[in-house]
Amino acid sequence: MGELRVLYRKGSHHNVLFFTERCNSRCLMCSQPPRDLDDGYLIDDMLETIPLMDPDTRVLCITGGEPTILGWRLMEVMTSVARHLPDTALHMLSNGRAFAYKETAKAMSQSGIRDIMIGIPLYADVASLHNFVVQARYAFDQTLRGIMNLARFEVPVEIRFVIHRQTVARLVQTARFITRNLPFATQVALMGLETIGFTRTNVSVLWIDPWEYREALAEAVSVLAEAGMKVMIYNLPLCLMPQKLWPFAQRSISDWKTMYMPVCESCTLKSECAGFFASAPFKYSDHIRPLLAHPSEPAA
Amino acid sequence: MNGLNRSFKSPEFYRRAESYKLLPLRFMRFDGNRYFVSGMGGEYLFMERSKLEQVVQGKVSTTDPLYADLLASHLIADEDSDIYRELVAAKYRTRQSRLPDWTALHMFVTTLRCDHSCQYCQVSRVSEDRSSFDMTPEIASKAIGLMFKSPSPCIKVEFQGGESLLNFDLIRYVVSEVKTRNDGRKLEFVITTNLANLTDEMLDFAEEHRISFSTSLDGPETLHNKNRPRPGKNSHGKTEEGIRRIRTRLGSQAVSALMTTTVSSLEQPKQIVDEYVRLGFDSVFLRYISPYGFAVKSASKIGYETEKFIQFFKEGLAYILELNKQGIFFRETYTQIILQKILMPGASGYIDLQSPAGIGIGGIVYNYNGEVYASDEGRMLAEMGDKTFKLGTVDDRYEKLFLNSPLLAMIHESMVEGVPGCSDCAFQTYCGTDPVFHHRTQGDFIGHRPSSAFCHRNMEVIRHIITLLEDDKEVSTILKSWL
Ligand code: SF4
Question: Whose CA is nearest to atom 6 of ligand 1?
């Protein structure tokens, strides 16, 4: 029996180029635990697929693993995207560490892709905590240096913060740190936890009911918004956050991964809610409740 | 760590540092037992005295919750990370990022003639003969040449007086000449005027060239007319009428107003604010009077002590915050400037509170007679016979005006990093320096901070704004909405 892999789905907003399973970090909550394999064939597939893609594709997402591990082969893919999909925006998820080297950051600015954004996680405002979360000793410095280098070469950066029990204590302070040190970032994404991969392995040290951190989330959002930064909340259902945060909440979870709970049936805001990962039944909040208000109505 | 899969390392493994070092930090007693501690990047923390002692003695434990705050605010550093150097340097550079652009504001004194005889006015001459107090096109043309030597990508041309509109022909000349000779700069034109002589022809011209206006409004009619006498005693009415005409023709943003605080103003902060609200402005600048020119001569008549000004400022600000609580969006400009310096990492555009001082390198004045001054206050001093801040004339080469003039020494000597008092002041990053003021009041560009009215005023204003930010949640939210 042959194997069929779907490399690309036309018309989907979430076309993902999965680059590699390898990574130089090992985050406590990695949803895609890294494996040290020689998976260079993924790139060969990709280089064949890109010319066949619909040039109307709006967004392509590069993920992994850590795409920069591929070195110059990453550039090959980017050049191909620039050539065959000139109107497509590229969103790449990276831990940013490789951009601590100026040359790597510079290469990103020279890919020829017009609309590129690199999403880079920052899990704390202090080195020891960030390094613990990503399980890599010099990662904090490398990531920050990387973000600064990308800014130097005018490559747009999104800063991503995943909220869990280990990071939540410095959520607000990290927001403040970003406004002071990285005000040039294009946007900041504050994200709920997806309970798959390593998160399951470490669930007892990671899980926190989003209901518990709603106040901290609200404060972090206002710190960033007051400083004029663009903030987005991902992966959190509307009923777990104060209503004033609804305008920041995104319906981001990829369509094929979204689900809702039985109680959501009677919720009037279901269509605007990010819902849950398909993995959510493993562990989810006790505070899910259908909402009857509409976001355009003033807060009660 | 309990529950962490054994293939992962514990938090302790990543917390290597056992001791820390202090980064450059400054502190001051804020109130009671509270100390205010700030770093080079502009971040600050409050702590009690005993805690501060622990910090400076290297005794804060790595598990103390304050430890992470100290690290993240770049007040201390440890061996777990050395990125702080780049971050602090980047923040310092960002705050000074306007410096390489050099002079953006170019003030042309079109004439010294004026129809008003304001008590506090430094320089104007009433009904003197035209030829001796007007700028000529020849002088203006040379000034424009110097102006385009500035590397700044944005050039703001501001027409000053006297009453600048009394030499409107020169304004016409300068605007068209600047536009013709423009080599790709972003241009902005502002006419500073009392509006009493505003004609429809001038409005046509302003509309055609997108010129905006800046006028003087001291408060309600009685106060304004007392401060700003003119034949007919109708300055306020003329100003109000002018504001309306400009708005009708050019839109609501085309005119701004500045107030000058006199002894009579000190009694009526609310009335002044109310007047600005009534006239449809969304901000007021509760501005300190400068001790120059006629202002010094008539000091006994209109002068006041700093303490009274601070009281006036606080009352005015409190009233403005009240208005905001009632849903009226209205800002106090000086507060907004200070807030921006405290809360935002960017460079401040306000040239009168900078270090290095904005004289010459932020703004420069081409006087009616061709003399070039480092600032408007410097030019006013000159009218009183003190030409310290004269850099040269429009006949000089650009390089001479900036490099072979007294300018660089004034700027260099007065930088807060080196001025006694400022060098270890915890408000340093939010403040600035004013060599003209200190030269005038204390005899040199550096001055003596413990007895400096500039320092006294800024210290109190900054302290007040930080207190509001820290201790009053509702007010803090309002203030942040002003950014
Ligand atoms: S002028 Fe006064 S308040 Fe300002 S920095 Fe200097 S010492 Fe501090």
Answer: B422
Is residue B103 a contact partner of residue B150, using CB atoms and an 8 Å limit?
yes
Nearest residue to A91 via CA among A162, A14, A34, A144: A14
How far away, in angstroms, is B268 Cα from ligand 1 center? Answer: 28
Q: How far apart are the CA of B339 and the nearest CA of chain A, in angstroms?
A: 11
pLDDT of B186: 98
- In which region does residue B315 sit, left (phi positive, over 0), alpha (psi from -120 to 50) or beta (all else)? alpha
pLDDT in tens, B33-72: 999 999 999 999 999 999 999 999 999 999 899 999 999 9
CATH number for domain B99-403, candidates 1.10.443.10, 3.40.50.620, 3.20.20.70, 2.60.120.10: 3.20.20.70
Other residues' Cβ atoms within 10 Å of the Cβ of residue B61: 9
**In chain A, where the domains are located:** 16-277
Give rounded-to-5 percent helix, strand, coil for chain A. Answer: 40, 15, 45
Quick check: A210 and A163 in contact, CB under 8 A?
yes
Are the Cβ atoms of B80 and A128 closer than 8 angstroms? yes
Which residues lie below 8 Å from residue B472, measured CB to CB, with a gap of 6+?
none
Q: Indicate whether B296 pLDDT > 90.
A: no
CATH number of A16-277: 3.20.20.70
Chain B, nearest residue to A126 by Cα: B72
With vertex at residue B47, the alpha carbon angle to CA B41 and CA B53, rounded to the nearest 5 degrees, is 95
Q: Strand B76-78 and strand B20-22: pairing?
A: antiparallel
Tokens 């600000």 locate to: B317
Q: How confident is the model at residue A11 (pLDDT cuts 50, 70, 90)?
A: low
Asked if B42 contacts B94 with a C-beta cutoff of 8 angstroms, the reply is no
Strand partners, B35: B29, B47
Residue A76 belongs to what H/E stretch?
A: helix A72-84
Closest CA relative to residue A101, chosen from A63, A141, A158, A128 = A141
Q: How confident is the model at residue A33 (pLDDT cuts 50, 70, 90)?
A: confident
pTM attached to this predicted model: 0.91
Distance (Å) from the C-alpha of residue A299 to the closest C-alpha of chain B?
A: 17
Q: Please give the structure tokens belonging to residue A198.
A: 């390593």
Strand-pair partners of B258: B216
Q: Parse chain B into domains and list their residue ranges.
A: 18-95, 99-403, 415-471
